[in-house]
Write a structure and sequence with these properties.
Layout: H1 2-33, E1 42-46, E2 52-56, H2 67-84, E3 90-94, E4 105-106, H3 111-127, E5 134-135, E6 138-139, H4 140-150, E7 154-159
Parallel strand pairs: 2-3
Antiparallel strand pairs: 1-2, 3-7, 4-7, 5-6
Amino acid sequence: MLLEASETFIYIVLLILIAIPVSSVFVSLYARLQNRYLNRYFIILPRKNGGYELHYQPLHGFYYARERKFHRMIVEAIRIFQMNNPDCMLVANTLTFVSRSRGSMPVQTPRPLLTFLRFMAYFLVLLNLANYRQVKRQWRIAQLIRNVHQSRPVYYVVVAEQLGELYNWSN
């Protein structure tokens, strides 16, 4: 009985470990077919107002990206978006994207949706293998999960149609 339960648990864990990269590859391939793929970390989805929303979608599910690499990838994604869509607006609605000092606006979110958004943010933090390290004798993953738990969803304008509204992400 105990052996069957442990085998079932192992099968479920293996299924999850296989399903994450496979589903991520399918979502990225679909985005590429729809011409919404920016790079191996970011895709865009159209909004009702004609603009686009930036989504974090690692190509292989699990990934290894420290802060500098992540910043480099987001700057590259924004540059690709600007080349392909010079007159469109790009926004992000997120819990963990950038600091609060970048002109963000808090978003009113119903509690069930906030719980779901936090769960998805925890999931993305857990998928980043670079977070499983210690920084100043504290685990990085614990710090990030604590930050996600304490944060509220915010709305960022990443690229605006008017030049005066364009945020400089390269600094």
